[in-house]
């Protein structure tokens, strides 16, 4: 159904508000990763530069919002310790008590290994559909395409990743669990940059420039 124009609601956000939301998102992303390793409030507070109270409140929010996940995680840990083995849907096995015996590692293993299954299948699907894959990058993929084709290839790769997640996360074809993805397109001559690595990248460029200048003077 297409709504009439007057039914649409809009909200104008200032740059400061957008930056605030981005900062909040970044903090919660750190928490979401840390909570998989059972990081405690004091350590999380130091990592984020917030008070221990605020860090504990973030952890409490996660446990309340995702209570079903935590019940599953507790059951998985107990099953892995009792049976001495854990495995993914596609048969990647790991024995507990030999290579894995830490509770935090066991909790995190299923998440990371399932993600690895998804990424492998996504890469296979991408290659079969003619995508030029340059490399997997942690939980993402780097692809290359001509400028006039890049948008279509990005959309196709996102569809491959969506399909891969459905294959791994569902017991049968009727399952509806799937993962969303986002994408960032960089057009030549621009290059990809991440604010978390900007300082070290600038430092590397500075050192290269100094080295080049020194070699030139020596010549």
Short structural description:
By secondary structure, the chain is mainly alpha-helical.
Q: How would you explain this protein's 3D organization?
A:
The chain has helices at 15-35, 41-48, 52-65, 67-83, 103-128, 150-169, 198-218, and strands at 85-87, 93-95, 132-137, 140-144. Helix 5 (103-128) packs across helix 6 (150-169). A hairpin with a 2-residue loop joins strand 3 (132-137) and strand 4 (140-144). It is mainly alpha-helical. The chain has 7 helices and 4 strands. It has a domain at 14-65. A two-stranded antiparallel sheet has the order 1-2.
- For the secondary structure, the number of strands is 4
- Identify the strand order in the major beta sheet: 1-2
Please give the largest β-sheet. 2 strands, antiparallel
Distance between the termini: 72 Å
Shape descriptor? globular
Helix tally equals: 7
Work out the radius of gyration.
Answer: 22 Å
Mean pLDDT: 86
Overview features:
disordered N terminus; mainly alpha; 8% strand; globular; 4 strands; 7 helices; 219 residues; two-stranded antiparallel ribbon; two-stranded antiparallel sheet
Topology:
Blueprint: H1 15-35, H2 41-48, H3 52-65, H4 67-83, E1 85-87, E2 93-95, H5 103-128, E3 132-137, E4 140-144, H6 150-169, H7 198-218
Antiparallel strand pairs: 1-2, 3-4
Helix pairs in contact: 1-3, 2-3, 3-4, 5-6
């Amino acid at each position: 159904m297409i709504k009439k124009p007057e039914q649409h609601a809009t909200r104008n956000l200032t740059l400061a508000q957008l930056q605030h939301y981005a900062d909040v998102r970044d903090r919660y992303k750190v928490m979401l990763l840390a909570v998989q390793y059972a990081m405690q409030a004091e350590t999380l507070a130091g990592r984020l530069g917030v008070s221990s109270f605020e860090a504990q409140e973030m952890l409490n929010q996660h446990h309340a919002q995702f209570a079903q996940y935590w019940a599953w995680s507790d059951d998985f840990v107990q099953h892995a310790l009792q049976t001495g083995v854990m495995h993914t849907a596609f048969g990647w096995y790991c024995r507990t008590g030999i290579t894995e015996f830490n509770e935090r590692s066991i909790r995190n293993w299923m998440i990371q290994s399932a993600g690895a299954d998804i990424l492998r299948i996504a890469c296979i699907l991408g290659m079969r559909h003619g995508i030029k894959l340059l490399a997997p990058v942690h939980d993402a993929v780097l692809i290359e395409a001509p400028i006039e084709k890049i948008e279509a290839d990005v959309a196709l790769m996102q569809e491959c990743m969506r399909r891969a997640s459905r294959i791994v996360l569902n017991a049968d074809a009727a399952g509806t669990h799937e993962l969303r993805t986002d994408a960032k397109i960089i057009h030549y001559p621009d290059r990809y940059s991440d604010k978390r690595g900007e300082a070290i990248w600038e430092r590397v460029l500075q050192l290269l420039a100094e080295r080049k200048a020194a070699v030139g003077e020596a010549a």
